[in-house]
Amino acid sequence: MKYVLVTGGVVSGLGKGVTASSIGVLLKACGLRVTSIKIDPYLNTDAGTMSPFEHGEVFVLDDGGEVDLDLGNYERFLDIKLTRDNNITTGKIYQSVIDKERRGDYLGKTVQVVPHITDAIQEWIERVAMIPVDGKEGAADVCVIELGGTIGDIESMPFIEALGQFSYRVGPGNFCLVHVSLVPVLNVVGEQKTKPTQHSVRGLRGLGLTPDILACRSAKPLEENVKDKLSQFCHVPAANIVTLYDVSNIWHIPLLLRDQKAHEAILKVLNLHGVARKPLLDEWTRRAELCDMLQEPVRIAMVGKYTGLSDSYLSVLKALLHASIACRRKLTVEWVPATDLEDTTAKETPDVYKAAWNLLKGADGILVPGGFGDRGVQGKILAAKYARENNVPFLGICLGMQIAVIEYARSILGLQDANSTEFDPDTKSPCVIFMPEGSKTHMGGTMRLGSRRTYFQVTDCKSAKLYGNVNYVDERHRHRYEVNPDMITELEDAGLSFVGKDETGRRMEILELHSHPYFVGVQFHPEFKSRPGKPSALFLGLIAAACGQLEAVMQHSGHVSMVAMKNCMSNGTLPAKAYRNGSANKAANGSLNGSLYCNGNGVHV
Predict the structure, then answer these.
(1) Does the active-site annotation cover 598?
(2) Which of 468, 480, 525, 521 lies closest to 72, judged by CA?
(3) pLDDT tens track for 443-483
(4) Measured between alpha carbons, how far is 438 from 61 in angstroms, rounded to an integer?
(5) Is 527 a catalytic residue?
(6) Which whole number is the average pLDDT over 281-309?
(7) Is the pTM above the cut of 0.85?
(8) Shortest CA distance to 397 belongs to which of 494, 491, 473, 509?
(9) Catalytic-role residue among 516, 525, 556, 559
């Protein structure tokens, strides 16, 4: 096993996760199998109980692991399925060591950070690196490890020590360290300053780790004299210093690394030149360039409670982006704080209230994502009501589905007190109830988590068509409340159709309003399995409905093939069947390899 460690210096938020993911993409393009590990030095056992405002979204894996959002980047970039053990936290390590001590595994030894904690870290890395994550047999060739935080942080010291020992343990040729650092430009001076990176590398070397490659974040490419200076003071060859400068979209980052021959530097350090090929990134290049070329917008109103931090909805944003590119539209997300739609805001700050409603009414589609707690719930209900009454394409995820049920019960069934027991435990019309197996005393890991199966109850529904007319789908869940099965008959008699249920038939997974152009609610989180080139079916449905392409997409089973994009972009012609402005006007002749769409003027992009 070969290991690539990605560390960060100077400041946090430099993009270590995207850098680590991009390194993985580049190595995978060289024909290598890649897996990833994220180390988070916080004491939490996992990310499940952390506020989205503080840490961004909680990414959910197939096995139910609630992990750091960077694992979402790894899965999307590398198209792999990770496990909860691919996210290491201080809490997990200390818990495992203390459990061993309580069992007497250390045979009376005094348990200390060195060697017991550091050994546990190394053993964890070696064990998890061997887990196949790409659907193939056997271990990967390379494990990319990202160390969260910044060099010098107190909480990361045990990991730094462990990784220093680990580099010695696996030996030369098996360990490559990539240090991501900042090269700022001071407005007064106007030149790229290397001193922050010098100090960061000096601190890293003082802790027992020597960088093989420097990845410098900067607004513009590094000047040659700056590279030479960094090489001299940081003891890194100039050829091993790459610039991660600002780009139009993050899919350009693997291409930046390739163009600066970062793969050659990594392969040389890891002695892999004999087994790796020249990186093949044609499809990746087409996608990055296509994203830049799109001009006709599709506007989606995101009605949430964590809109102050976009990372709170990172996977949702990525799923929207994947779907909008498939429909050849430039995504514009209109952030609508749910509380701004409520009557209280109208009384206190009418300008804010008016602006929020203007954004909602100007959108082509409305998305209500998941969340916890009662803040903003009334605003989300009003958004769902507006979408339902005005035939605006709507997608509700998790809580978004639940509030759609509440709104329908209030407006159509006339149950004015209809609510979730999460918000009103004493409601006489509990549309949404606490799950029987849930825990009200412990928060962490007590929800319905991970991949669960949903069976379609009817085949002639939009969701089934978008998924390709299959009998069931496996999607990831994260919730502790669910639609009350005792109210299903009443709701369905009133026109709300629950087209997807679990294997027992008592858990509602997908709802639709057949009389509506696109009104879909799902209890699961489809955003977690969306991939570049393979958009989530229901996000694709929302975007397609928002720009008049839904019928065309459903006609081709919801599959927007990257093969079609590749063929079309290579010869500059449209595939046999293409759809313009959502109409079924057929282009030329021949056959279609996956549906491909044109921009609003019918011009191939």
Answers:
(1) no
(2) 525
(3) 565 678 999 999 999 988 999 999 998 999 999 999 989 99
(4) 19
(5) yes
(6) 92
(7) yes
(8) 509
(9) 525
